[in-house]
Structure formats: C-alpha cells, structure tokens
Specification:
Structural class: alpha+beta
Radius of gyration: 39 Å
Helix content: 55-70%
Number of strands: 6
CATH class of the largest domain: Mainly Alpha
Largest sheet: 4 strands, antiparallel
CATH architecture of the largest domain: Up-down Bundle
Strand order of the largest sheet: 1-4-5-6
CATH topology of the largest domain: Outer membrane efflux proteins (OEP)
Number of helices: 12
Number of domains: 2
C-alpha cells in the first residue's frame, strides 16, 4: 500500500515539474506614469461629481435625458448584460461545490453464462429452490454526487474572472449612460442653434425682400439697372433655399433626439430663447487621478485586465492533475418489494479520481499562450484608455478657453458688420456706393451671425463633452 502512495506521489511530481518547465510567465510591462495635474492646476474640485440633473440647468433638456435613460435601447441592453454577467458569476461559484442529483432506475439485465457475474449467479438462489432468472430485474433509487476538488485554484480563479466581468458590465452600463447624457445634450444644443439660425435667416429674408422692393422702385426711376434687381432677387432665393435646408436639419435633429430617447418622432419641447441667454457653465476639472476613478471606460479596461490575469491562472491550472470525487448512496434490489429493505438493499460507493494531461498537450499550451496574449492586450488597452482620457480632458479644457475668446471677438465682428449694413445702405441711397457693396455687407453680416450661433453651440457642446471626459453623467 505504501509503495502505491509513493508511485502516485512520484507521478504527480513528474507532472508538476514538466508543467512548470513548459510554462513561461507573462512578461512584465511597466505602465506609463500619469501626470499629477492638468496644466499645473492643483484644484481638486471636480464637476464630474455633480449629478447630471444639477449640472444641466435647462428643464427641457433634463426631461429629455431622463426619458432617454429609461427607454434608450442601448441602456436597456446594458442592463441585460449585467444580468448575464451576474448569472455567470453564480454559475462559476456553483462549480466550487459538489453536484448532487437524485434519481432512479428500472430495468433488467442478462449476464453472459461464461462471465464472473453469470457464473456466480448460477450458483445462488434468489428464493429457496429457485435459481437466478435469465433476465434479472434491477431497481435503483438514490443520490449521486460529483465534486472536482479545486486544488490549484482553477475554479476559484474562474469565479474571480467572472466577477470582474460582472463589474465590467456595470461600468458598461455607466459608460452607456454618460455617453447618452452627453449625446442628448449636444443634440439638444444643436437643435437650439438651428432654431436661432432659422430666425436669423427669416429676418434676413424679410430685410432682403424690403431691399428688393426698394431696388425695383429705383429701377423704375432709372436710378439702378435691371442687373441690380436680379442680384437682390437672387439673394432672396438663396436665403429661402437656406431656410428649407435648416428646416430639414431641424427635423433630422429632432428625430435623432427621439431615437436616442427610444420613442417615435414627435416635437421636441424646447425654449430657443434660452440659447441666447445661457452662459456656458464653469467646469472644474480636478486632477487626473479623479478622472481615472470616474471614467467608466477606464474602469472597464482595468476590470478586463484583472479578469485576464485570472484567465491566465485558469489556463495554467489545466496543466496540473485534477482531483475528483464521485459517490452514490441509495437502495438497489431485483424486486420492488425488497427495494427499501435495510440494510440488505442499501448500496453506496465512493471513488476518488486523478487525471492529468500526458500526450498531445498542444491544445492547452495554445490556450495558455492565448490567455497570456489576452492579458498583455488588456494591459495595452488599459494604458490606451488612460492616455485617451487624459488627452480628451486636455483638449476640451483648451477648447473651452479658446472658444470663449473666439466668441468675444465674433460678437464684436457681428456688431461691426451690422453697422456696416446701415452705412452701405445710406451710401447706396445717396449714390455714393454700388449695390454690390450693400449685398456684400448683408452677406458678411449674415455669415458672421450664423458663425456666432455656431460658436455658442460649440461652447455649450464643449461643456457637455468635458463633463463626459471627466467621467460625469452616470452617478
């Protein structure tokens, strides 16, 4: 008996040494150090901590976001991904414990005469004076159990990997939420911008129509030629075409918002006058370490890395012997009347199993190498997500600052060009300027007004984007 134990131990030792020599560890890769501050700013106040209901002041926008978070298909899918990951954790956890099944069997068997069972049965009486029948009934009722003993931590690490995937699915939902909040806000500001552009174009059409009427009168008085009339008339047609183009953009933007909100096309409730009066919110960026903790995509990459490390340990454990225990306890008899007679019909078994890969281990070697490659890939993904997050915050901070300066200058440009229209009209009426100068002044003023609206939209979008870049919107 002792020699058998020695043989088993020797075999196990050889298998373990062979496995250890086969496996090469995952190469160590150093992560790049994240800067401590953004542009030397040391303030730790972070706008990402503000709930989106408080971050956005427009009640109509808040209502749209609330509707989208409840009905958006991506948000609903993300919730189901969480349920799938949660059940996978339960599955992996369940494999750590013995599986017990209850059942029964009923049938018959015929043993060959020239077998150990057949020869033994021929000499035994079932009842006095009767031999074993040729077709022997068999009835069995009991409990079966099977249990893989997790010596090397394979099942525990599989459970850990599933748990990290579960946490990743939660942050996947958070990522959908923060992206949805920013996208709804950006589309809403685009819609307000288009409303104001439409108002400006319509007002300009009215002015141009009045100017066209005046030029027609002047043409009848031979002050100007037919060419001047056609030029003013063409400008009116151009503006009317622009109006329809903007109206189409408004329809498409409304439908986009409705799609994000998970509903069919309908009018979007909004107050376009807020766009002119609303000032871009002052955003506090805090420090990069807060961004790492807040951004769902970075946390997802981190959980993916943790799960990949566990997967490597699971793949490594495949090289080692596995230990299992199977057992049975119940009642077994050839007659139903004897089935529950104890102890005569009581049957039980307990078997220990040992299995280890010996030949053709290329499949598990490939599985292990794949797990290592996935871990390295997850590390690079994690590093890339950190770099991307820092760059996004840096870009949006610069955008907010530069747009503020650009808006101030464009506002002065609009004021100057608006004055130039009146000057050009006076000079034209006094025959001291050509009609083309009036058209150019009106065109330049219109372009400047539209650009001012776009700059205001970009300012509001930059605020929504920096809120998203900092990891805000999902709390």
């Amino acid at each position: 008996m002792r020699s058998n134990y020695k043989t088993i131990i020797s075999v196990l030792s050889i298998l373990l040494l062979t496995a250890c020599n086969t496996l090469k560890p995952v190469p160590k890769i150093e992560l790049r150090q994240v800067p401590a501050y953004y542009s030397m700013g040391t303030d730790t106040i972070n706008s990402a901590a503000i709930n989106w209901r408080d971050f956005f002041a427009d009640k109509n926008l808040v209502s749209l976001i609330d509707t989208a978070l409840k009905n958006n298909p991506d948000a609903l899918i993300a919730m189901q991904n969480i349920e799938i990951a949660k059940n996978n954790v339960r599955l992996r956890k369940g494999k750590l414990f013995p599986f017990v099944t209850a059942g029964g069997e009923a049938g018959f068997e015929k043993a060959g005469r020239y077998t150990s069972q057949g020869a033994g049965d021929a000499s035994a009486d079932i009842t006095p004076g009767e031999v074993v029948p040729e077709h022997l009934p068999n009835y069995l009722v009991g409990l079966n159990t099977a249990w893989e003993i997790d010596v090397w931590g394979k099942l525990r690490n599989a459970k850990k990997a599933a748990f990290y995937k579960y946490l990743q699915s939660i942050d996947g939902r958070n990522l959908v939420t923060t992206n949805l909040v920013a996208e709804i806000a950006n589309s809403y500001y685009e819609l307000l911008s288009l409303d104001n552009k439409l108002d400006i174009i319509r007002a300009t059409i009215e002015l141009q129509q009045n100017a066209l009427d005046i030029v027609r009168v002047q043409k009848q008085a031979t002050v100007v030629t037919e060419l001047a009339v056609k030029q003013f008339e063409a400008q009116v047609y151009k503006l009317q075409a622009m109006e329809y183009d903007v109206r189409q953009q408004i329809t498409e933007t409304e439908n986009k918002i409705n799609f994000l909100a998970g509903r069919f096309p309908q009018p979007i409730v909004r107050n376009k006058t807020i766009f002119k009066d609303e000032l871009p919110k002052q955003v506090a960026a805090g420090i990069p370490s807060q961004m790492l903790a807040n951004r769902p995509d970075i946390r997802m990459a981190e959980y993916e890395l943790m799960a990949a490390k566990c997967d490597v340990k699971v793949a490594k454990a495949e090289f080692y012997p596995s230990f299992g225990i199977t057992g049975f306890v119940g009642f077994n008899a050839f007659k139903t009347s004897y089935l529950f007679t104890s102890p005569q019909s009581l049957a039980y078994s307990l078997v220990g199993e040992l299995a280890a890969p010996l030949v053709n281990r290329s499949a598990i070697v490939a599985e292990f190498n794949t797990a290592k490659a996935n871990q390295i890939k997850a590390l690079y993904d994690y590093q890339q997500s950190i770099l991307n997050g820092y760059v996004e915050v840096s870009n949006e901070l610069a955008r907010i600052s530069n747009l503020q300066q650009a808006y101030t200058l464009k506002n002065k440009q609009v004021e100057t060009l608006t004055q130039s229209i009146d000057i050009a009209k006076d000079l034209f009426n006094s025959a001291r300027a050509d009609y083309l100068e009036v058209l150019v002044a009106q065109r330049d003023a219109l372009d400047a007004k539209l650009e001012l609206i776009e700059t205001k939209q970009q300012q509001l979008n930059a605020v929504a984007n920096i809120y998203k870049a900092l990891g805000g919107g999902w709390k």
